[in-house]
Amino acid sequence: MEYKTYLARKRLKKLVICGHVNIPYGTAVTNEGGVLMWNGKPICATTSQDAFDFFSQNDDDRGRERGELVSAILIKLAKQDHQKERWGRVWEDPLCRKYKRPEHEDFWIWNYDFYNAPVEDLRYILKLVEG
Question: Domain total for the chain?
Answer without folding.
Answer: 2
